[in-house]
Amino acid sequence: MLNFDKLSLNIPDTTKPRVVIIGGGFGGINLAKKLSGKHFQVVMFDKQNYHGFWPLLYQVATAGLEPDAIAEPLRKMFGSDDYEDFHFRLVRVTGIYHATNTVATLIGDLQYDYLVIATGTKPNFFGNEQIQRYSFPLKHIPDALNLRSQLLQCFEQASMTKDQEIRHSLLNFVIVGGGPTGVELAGALAEMRTHILPTDYPGLDFSKMNIYLIEGLDRVLPPMDPKSSEKTHRYLEKLGIVVKLSTLVESYDGLTVMLKGGEQIKAHTLIWAAGVSGALVDGLPAESVERGRILVNPFSQVIGFNNIFAIGDIAFMKTEKYPRGHPGVAQPAMQQGKLLAKNLRRLIKGEKLEPFEYLDKGSLAIIGRNRAVADLPGNLHLSGFFAWIIWLFVHIMYLVGFRNKLVVISNWMYRFFTFERGTRLIIRPFVRKGDKSARDFFKKYNPDS
Amino acid sequence: MLNFDKLSLNIPDTTKPRVVIIGGGFGGINLAKKLSGKHFQVVMFDKQNYHGFWPLLYQVATAGLEPDAIAEPLRKMFGSDDYEDFHFRLVRVTGIYHATNTVATLIGDLQYDYLVIATGTKPNFFGNEQIQRYSFPLKHIPDALNLRSQLLQCFEQASMTKDQEIRHSLLNFVIVGGGPTGVELAGALAEMRTHILPTDYPGLDFSKMNIYLIEGLDRVLPPMDPKSSEKTHRYLEKLGIVVKLSTLVESYDGLTVMLKGGEQIKAHTLIWAAGVSGALVDGLPAESVERGRILVNPFSQVIGFNNIFAIGDIAFMKTEKYPRGHPGVAQPAMQQGKLLAKNLRRLIKGEKLEPFEYLDKGSLAIIGRNRAVADLPGNLHLSGFFAWIIWLFVHIMYLVGFRNKLVVISNWMYRFFTFERGTRLIIRPFVRKGDKSARDFFKKYNPDS
Predict the structure, then answer these.
(1) B10 falls within a domain
(2) Is B407 in Cβ contact with A156 (below 8 Å)?
(3) Which among B426, B324, B388 has a CA at the least distance from the CA of A24?
(4) Average pLDDT of the residues in B18-46
(5) B9, B47, B75, B269, best to mutate vs chain A, most A CBs in 10 Å
(6) Among partner residues B4, B157, B403, which is closest to A2 by beta-carbon distance?
(7) Co-location of A139 and A156 in the same domain
(8) Quick check: B1 contacting A, CB < 8 Å?
(9) Which residues contact A177 (CB under 8 A, 6 or more apart)?
(10) Is residue B198 part of a domain?
(11) Do A95 and A139 belong together in one domain?
């Protein structure tokens, strides 16, 4: 077997300034792309070997897209043909030693001239370990595959029981969080209920399948314009989704969702889309961190440092227009990444840095077939079919990689004309952390695996 | 959590004869399709919820196709719209009680009028537990995803070590078994070595990457014509694959492949494509089983029974032309499934059954870009570009589902023109059965998962 002591980062020595980027998300890849050329050696660390296009993750979970369609291998994006001094390492960063300009990983340390933290976010369970244990988050590709298997297995199991109470609870799906992920997932599930499931499971009565969308604030899509929220709410109800506003979840034991106030919902599936927190890296002083995110100045410099930067969701840049930071979507990360590349070039030339100004290109959310909402610049609010067309166009446009675009367009056209969702395979075991009974169930069903 | 005692098969009562099919492979689906109509109630059991197109599995393992492209959900194939009395159950069959015409599953028993065993095969390690533990089989979709992750992780790790010996061993890939799976996999790996890997891993010297293909008999593709074997052998060597004929593997401890005769190869990856054995079901008398397969008469009836049948790879039908049974490929299974549907109709009408006669449509194997071999009916042997075109055409034609055809054609066209393989994502943990160090390594790298 592999002797792990024999592994090392193996980054070639260089006379160029070395930029170390932690994370291959929207911020990291846009920065890395623009840094190509003769001026820098660029090193990227990530725990995954691919960049994921997370806005489409809910479609993987609802069997509309294959996981490979929304992810692009990082090494493919920065292949040596067009990018000479780029070095990707599939390794976890364990900490920063800023006194010595060193970043530590599991297999060794590396000195940097410039360090960029672009680690994004992780699901936030607000300290509720029980919910963390039993709920399904939707943050990474394995999450989406787990959720897809869970949804399908619930239907399979529901068709294999005569116990009304159990069947009812298998067909109850509770989504916590009324942001884009929650809304889009609820819409996709409702579409499945209408178009796919009755044909796949003729023995089940899908009028008994309930989709709950639970939001703590007083409207869905709270970051969007109230008009769009209202429109979305109406769309959701038209699709038969039970929307509960100003409602908090108190606990979930894998079977009963307890809402604050005493109401209970029996459900085998709770999807947690209620919030995220920054994926922090150890080693920054306390004064550089606020509310789980890293404080930066308008040049993305971490407060207290000249050569450490943070971009994207992990960065907390307070500006007059955005006193609570920029929205946690792809656009600020992409724009910050691109600007930082320019600023790093200025920095080595001794030029003045350009402050970041967020160009808001608008927000979009889709609620099933032919229905979407869009807040566009200039206080323009669209909904319905036209917003839906914009949503499709924007998501294809920003999708990385020609192959991915091709596969996604093929899938969407196929779905549009057939109402089908082709990828409803159960390929991952139904194993939840700490859920022994589920693991036993799987083993019982798959003794060879 | 789910109370498993509350699960039951839940198959509606019927006055029609009930056909129970175990397995949704090539035999099972062709039988089930042809049984639609008013005459039978059809029940299908499978441990997976999809039908897999296994001839393309090696392309999933080598990042050429997404897993969802080569699999079709069984419920989608037999949707209620066109098939009224069909019932799929995702459940493992535990045994047959032929005295009472009953099949037992994990969640209950079911009486049958006709039982069809179409369970196919499983990898055969010939009792070598060490090889079973450390090698990578290639039989199911999770196998292909595991192998894909393993291949990519070997390259990632090789680029993170300065230890020559370890790097060498990470870049040695040993494929055991010179049948179609082994040959096609070796070819695909060699193509990756030429076209993808040098760009992805500029720090690695791929002239040090070795692909071994080890076959126990005296030629590759033993079921094909000797001319095709010879041609294939030359193609493989042209691609730089080390072919070792008349060579047996004695042991493998995860690091050293010991060949019979004393030669050793240091390799982190051993792919086991050396053989399969029947996936038997408990409960048949010993006289119905020979060499791990179920003995059947020319009507696919299991020896000793009138209402139990076996089709496809699990069936052992001795005929004059095929005294050792039919080849273990898709065609005999498909043809037997179709004929059995006809014969079951004849059976309920009291008509005479038609014996099976295998129509050999030929054999094909692909050895990378533009190169394939084909044995066609009429003793016609093709090789090179024309055989390659036939291979592509046949595989697209037999692929189930319009969406799958579309996705596979998109991928192949993309690959043909760009030399790229888009789906090289590591999405499954590198965990081998019993390999604690690998599990620890993964945990260390992915503490949150």
Answers:
(1) yes
(2) no
(3) B426
(4) 96
(5) B75
(6) B157
(7) yes
(8) yes
(9) A214, A215, A272, A273, A274, A275
(10) yes
(11) no
- At A379, which amino acid appears? N
A17-76 pLDDT tens trace = 999 999 999 999 999 999 998 899 999 999 999 999 999 999 999 999 999 899 999 999
Burial track A83-117 (b if 16+ CB lie within 10 A, e otherwise):
bebbbbbbbbbbebebeebbbbbebeebebbbbbb
Same domain, B289 and B189: no
A165: containing domain = 129-274
Is A59 within the bounds of a domain?
A: yes
| Same domain assignment for residues A169 and A219 | yes
Please give, rounded to a whole number of angstroms, the shortest distance from the CA of A391 to a CA of chain B.
22
| ipTM for the predicted complex | 0.88
Q: Where among A331, A349, A367 does a domain terminate?
A: A349
Q: Does A362 touch chain B (CB under 8 A)?
A: no
- Residue A131 burial (CB < 10 Å; 0-12/13-18/19+)? buried
Tell me, yes or no, if B184 is annotated catalytic: yes
Residue B81 lies in a domain: no
Helix, coil or strand: residue B389: helix
Percentage of chain B beyond pLDDT 90 is: 78
Residues A231 and A304 in one domain: no
CATH of the domain at A111: 3.50.50.60
Q: How many structural domains does chain B have?
A: 2
User: Which position among B66, B72, B184, B354 bears the catalytic label?
Assistant: B184
Band (pLDDT 50/70/90 cuts) for residue A428 is low
> B12 vs B431, which has greater pLDDT?
B12
Domain boundary pick from A349, A383, A408: A349
CATH of the domain at B135: 3.50.50.100
The pLDDT value given to residue A228: 96
What average pLDDT is seen over chain A? 91
CA A110/CA B387 separation, integer angstroms: 52
Q: Min CA distance, A275 vs chain B (Å)?
A: 17
Q: Which of A4, A401, A437 sits opposite B2 (nearest CB)?
A: A437
d(CA B195, CA B201): 11
Share of chain B above pLDDT 70, in %: 93
- Of B145, B163, B200, which has the smallest distance from its Cβ to A6's Cβ? B163
Q: Is the pLDDT of residue B430 over 70?
A: no
The one-letter amino acid at B251: S
Q: Identify whether residues A106 and A133 lie together within a single domain.
A: no
Nearest CA in chain A to B90: A156
- Quick one: A101 and A21 in the same domain? yes
| CB proximity B164 to A under 8 Å | no
Per-residue model confidence (pLDDT) at position B30? 97
Q: Over the stretch B366-381, which tens digit does the pLDDT of each residue have?
A: 998 889 999 999 889 9
Regarding whether B139 and B202 lie in a shared domain, the answer is yes
